[in-house]
Amino acid sequence: MQLSRRAILAGGWTFGGHVASQLLRFGSNLLMTRLLAPDAFGVMALAFTFLFALNMASDLGVQQVATSSHRGGDPDFLDVIWTLELLRGLAIFLIGLLIAASLPLAAAQGWLEAGSTYAHPDLPLALALIAFSALVTGTNSVKLITKARELMVARVVTLDIGAQLIGLAAMVIWALYAPGVLALAFGSIVAAAAKSLLSHLAVPGHTARVRWDGAVFREILTFGRWIFLSSVLGFLAVSLDKVILGAQLDAALFGVYSIALLLFMAPYEVCNRIVMAVLFPALGEVARTRAQDLARTFYRMRMPIETVAVVAGALLFALGDDIVRLLYDRRYQDAGQALQILSLALPLVGVYASGVVYMVMGKPWVMSALMAPRLAGLAIGLPLLTERYGLPGAAWAVVISHWVSLPLAYGFLWRQGLVSWRGEARWLGSLLGCFALAAALGGGLPGLR
Fold first, then answer.
1. How many C-beta atoms surround the C-beta of residue 222 within 10 A?
2. 198 near 141, Cβ under 8 Å?
């Protein structure tokens, strides 16, 4: 099957699957907010932040290596990858347990701000359970990686949705029996277990076994050291807001922020999933077979991604406050204004998709460089704006951190001869038009009127 057809099919499945996944996640969130108080969501948001940190800090980019390497289909190569992922899951679990055990000790010593989310009594157990889900995830079949490399994602998407449904059912049953933060943690464990089991039983392909090969490990490490740096910076750029706000806000207000972030991340993750599941492997194949077409292919495939991002951002900008008022009870109403502000970061998804171009060109260090200004803006702006303006200030700090890396992103593209000014003019025109209309409908800039 031709690359363009495979990319279209993979994009359709990825987009449809992720939309379905986000709808399920959104529906479960609506249901669980009626069963649980805001502080439960604040505690789980912080627990997942710890898990995300451990995942990113241990990321060697095995998915990216398998996609870009000529040995990506070799069973021996895949065995080593699966072994590394298994060891990684075990390491995350043990470190997570250590952090969970240290939190009560830190609180007893007065090192945690009383009343903050970090000092919440349910956080240690929630973190320990979430860390266990990482151990389960480490047993996922390597078949998921090979299918993604081949742009054959239909069964993988179906598997993801099935596992999510099983986890949701477990979460609701637990919450009905014993409402509390543990219901959310239990659902995550069940979903991870279901995905691992289904990945071995329902996906055809090579069944991996434990294997070690020094040459393969060195290849992964050579590529992965830049992925590791990019992942660490990526975690800080994406999650530093939660790390800081967990210390500045109590669990209930932090839970409200997590609701706004969940609604914002729904379209954001759809676009990013398409970038990594479709754009990255497609560009990888172009780079391997006809590198001269890389820039043209990038802009052609970026157009639908940036269209979705701009339109979704404009809709949330105009209607975010109304959406929250319609869907949530008044305990969560402050999330509406924060959602409107966060929407201003959505249009940048298409531009920052340029990072995958550098990955397929064998220059993953560029990803790390692009993260640095964003991280600096977040580290400086978030404490100051939150202290002065509260939750809206925190949302503005997140948006500003997304925009500060834009000049550097275009600078790298220009140096590689990958800028299409016609493509950028099209993006800018759609951005200004959609958001001008949204501002007129929404009554101006949220948080500044």
1. 10
2. no
Which residues have C-beta within 8 Å of that of residue 385, sequence separation ≥ 6? 393, 394, 396, 397
- 8 Å CB contact between 227 and 59: yes
Is the Cβ–Cβ distance between 85 and 5 less than 8 Å? Answer: no
Report the C-alpha gap between 141 and 139 in whole angstroms. 6
CB proximity list for 333: less than 8 A, separation 6 or greater: 324, 325
Task: For 387-408, write each residue's pLDDT tens digit.
Answer: 888 899 999 999 998 888 888 8
Could you tell me the pTM of the whole model?
0.77
Domain ranges of the chain: 3-442
Distances (CA, A) of 376 to 233, 279, 347: 10, 28, 21
AA identity, residue 328: Y
Cβ neighbours, 10 Å, residue 327: 16
pLDDT band at 448 (very low <50, low <70, confident <90, very high): very low
97 contact partners, CB below 8 Å, separation of at least 6: 128, 131
* 276 C-beta neighbours (distance < 10 Å), count: 18
pLDDT one-digit tens code per residue, 102-111: 999 998 888 8
Alpha carbon distances (Å) from 424 to 30, 137, 272, 420: 38, 39, 19, 6
